[in-house]
């Protein structure tokens, strides 16, 4: 495991003409954000996901047959917001198709604004989740996560979707040496899982102890830093800003 993590850190560090440059590190940061946001949505907003739409569709099915503690309306609102966010992310991807740096910078700037709205909404009630706060957060967080998912897809960095881990975990096992595979990028895949776990762990600790606003604020800071850092690193149009296709 130590060797895998060491290899992962080396491959994540931007070197020379690496075609992805700093993108892996930046996208791992966004993966941490996803863990934080899903902790807020599931633990604080009534058992609904705003980033994991597979889980949301399943929850919707459960809710429709009367499962306790699940809401049909909350699941539908989250799905709708996510789709609108993904649509916006797709439009940004088309607009900045030739410059991945500008795409990530702009997308994370928009996400920063969206998450800032949720921080303000939650702060107004001092972290108490009224019905109004619940659906405000579901809508704006869903928009942000849909946007992030679409942009990560357009950036095209292998094994770093930032919002889902099913294919990452499948690849880690199915492509491994015991399975007869070449085991490509195992370290990066492990770091992706650890980043999501870290965000979820920290988010759960904060939300379960009544720090909803602080959790959202932490996500806000990480998104703002990602946008600013991307802006600085993309100056001069380095190789990694070009489309990988």
UniProtKB/TrEMBL annotation:
Keywords: Membrane, Transmembrane, Transmembrane helix. InterPro entries: DUF1275. It comes from the Bacteria. The chain crosses the membrane at residues 21-45, 57-90, 102-123, 129-147, 190-208, 214-235. The keyword Transmembrane applies. Pfam families: DUF1275. PANTHER family: DUF1275 DOMAIN-CONTAINING PROTEIN (PTHR37488:SF2). This is DUF1275 domain-containing protein.
